[in-house]
Amino acid sequence: MSTGTGTGTGTAADPAPRPRTVVALAGVTKEYPGPVAALRGVDLTVEEGELLGIVGPSGSGKSTLLHIIGTLDRPTAGSVHIAGHDVAALSDRRLSALRAQHVGFVFQAFHLVPGVSARDNVAEGLLYSGLARSVRRRKAADALARVGLADRLDHKPHQLSGGQKQRVAIAR
């Protein structure tokens, strides 16, 4: 017997856990100087475990939306909550920590630091976490192992294939 609301299939004795909201945008608008409004009144909720595709023609605001969700830019109006945190209320330092813990980007160009090992490229993603360098490097090695690159920890970007570079960026 199914009871309750939402998408769960729990019973009265064993209710399904409620999904956790990881991204919540309400009335988000982003205007640039001149007559350009990249976003107007965007409402969006993303629950933990959901997969979201953002599609649209060139100039429709996809990159702007991702920059706002990733806390790289702030909206002109509206509210943004990431992992329960009101982005507008956070200092730059707290925002950096939030990004390090809850936000990940894989850019087309991967943005790996040339001349730096795969392990240290990943460890740099934890720079604002407050963790000691040795702990960051250990966590980086663990992350690289999870993406199948345990044998490439000390390889520099120029020594990696395109797919391996992408996995380094994902691990970061």
From TrEMBL:
Q: Which GO terms describe its molecular function?
A: ATP binding; ATP hydrolysis activity; transmembrane transporter activity
UniProt KW keywords: ATP-binding, Nucleotide-binding
Q: Nucleotide-binding as a keyword?
A: yes
Query: Under the cellular component aspect of Gene Ontology, which terms does the record hold?
Result: plasma membrane
Question: Where is each ABC transporter domain found?
Answer: 23-172
User: Which Pfam families does the record match to this protein?
Assistant: ABC_tran (PF00005)
Q: Which PROSITE patterns match?
A: ABC_TRANSPORTER_2
Q: What protein am I looking at?
A: ATP-binding cassette domain-containing protein
